[in-house]
Structure formats: C-alpha cells, structure tokens
Amino acid sequence: DTWYHQFHDYLTTSVLPPNLTSNGKRVFLKSVSRYVIMGGLLYKRGFDGILLRCLTGAEVTYTIQQVHDGICGGHFSGLAVAKRILRLGYYWPTLNNDCYEYVKHCVMCQQHANLQHTPSHPLQVTRDLCPFSQWGLNLIGEIHPPSSQRHRLIITATEYYTKWVEAIPLISTKKEKIVKFINHHILCRFGVPHRLITDNGKYFKNKLLQDLCDNFGIKLSFSSPYYPQANGQVESSNKTLTKILMKVVNDSGSNWPDHIPFALWAYRTSIHTSTNATPFSL
C-alpha cells in the first residue's frame, strides 16, 4: 500500500517521498501525474479519460472476490476479472497479477475449468453478418439434479455477431415450448433474423418450427449430423454458460434455474476475445 500513500501525500502536500534518487524523482513525478485527489480519495486517469478509483488493502480482496465469485461473478479467468474491475472504475498497480493469483487458487475454478485443446482444423470466421441476423439454437442437458419444478434442460440461443445469449429452463423438449422460446426471446425482442442454425436434434426438426420460419421468411439450417460442433459458437457459449451454472448453484442444485439470469448477466457483460467487447456493449 506504500504507492497509494506516497501518491496521496504528494498530491495533497506537494512533498516528495524521502530518499529518492534523481532518476527516482523523475519516475515518481511521471507516474503521479496521472493521478488526482477527489473527495479525499485517490483516482487514476484512464487512457480513455475516465477516472478510476484506486483501491488498497481489504478493498482489493473484497473487490476481486465480488467480481469473480459474487452472485453475478461467473468465476471467469483472471484476465477477464481484471478487465471487468477496470470497467467498473477501479484500479491498483498489481491488478492483473492479483486477479490471476486469486483465480489460480479458487477451488471451484479448478474443479470445473475446461481442458484446453488445440483445434484440429483452422477456425472458420462467419462473414457478412449484422447484429441479430443469425442465431444458433441448442439444448443443454439433461441436468442433474432436476430443479424443484422438474426442469432438466436449458434451451439457449446465441447471436453470432454480438455473442449475445438468451436461455431459459425447460421441463421437456416439446416443440411448442421451443417455438414459444423463439417467439418470445428472439423475434419479439430482437426482430426477425435472417437465419436460425440448430443441431440435428429431433426436437428442432418439426413442422411447427418450420412453419414459423416459413411465415417470417427465416432460413432454418442444420449443422452436420456427424459433426454437431460445426455450430461452434453455440457449443462454445453452452460450455461457458454451463461452467458458470455449475459454479454458482448451491450444493443441493435444485434451484439452478434461479441462477440462469445471473449467469446470463455475467456472460453478457464479459469481454469476448473474438470481438474485444462485451455482448451488452454491441
């Protein structure tokens, strides 16, 4: 915490820390020039001009804990946690390293972290998209234990351009429930898309869904029956969403549907490496 007190004291008294060499004074003055005092608190000027409140001591630990494993945390990586803290308006010099160390020692992250694999084929970039023009649909489940209301599945819709995700729990794969989800959570919220892409599950191959697409002029596409991972963005979203849910549900697990909104919030407000932005901002 020495850095905080040195910067704060200099900005309030204009007195340099003792025992600085000539070079040390130049380095100190260059560093402190990006800081200001407001309301008795130390702030750093971000590169975008936004003031970041400087934290120290117990505030640092509390902030990392809340952002990483709080109710809307999602147990993301150290880098993602650090970026989110900056977006929330906080800063300290060892931010990145502290977040990395915290995540490295998180028991739940070690239990549920994905294994890293090198893709066997080059990743294909989806081109010629505009926001909300193309959605991928998939089902997560069966989930054990079922919820207290007998939900055992989650249907997800991933928007390809923004990476926005919609999801709700389902008791069954009835076609009426799937079409209702598309109507309420895609068409009525984001407009009519150009295309819907699904896996080859029989629950997506029905006349009711096809009629919906025909009525609105939506192209309905299916990924390869021998390689459902071709719908890659949806598969990736499902892995992330499932990982978040696994980490935030309590020991009984029966109330997991109550955590879906918080899992979606965590996902939508996290920066995606493919866009370098959050789905919410796009």
UniProtKB/TrEMBL annotation:
Any Pfam family hit: rve
Superkingdom per UniProt: Eukaryota
Example GO molecular function: nucleic acid binding
Any GO BP: DNA integration
Domain Integrase catalytic: 127-282
UniProt protein name: Integrase catalytic domain-containing protein
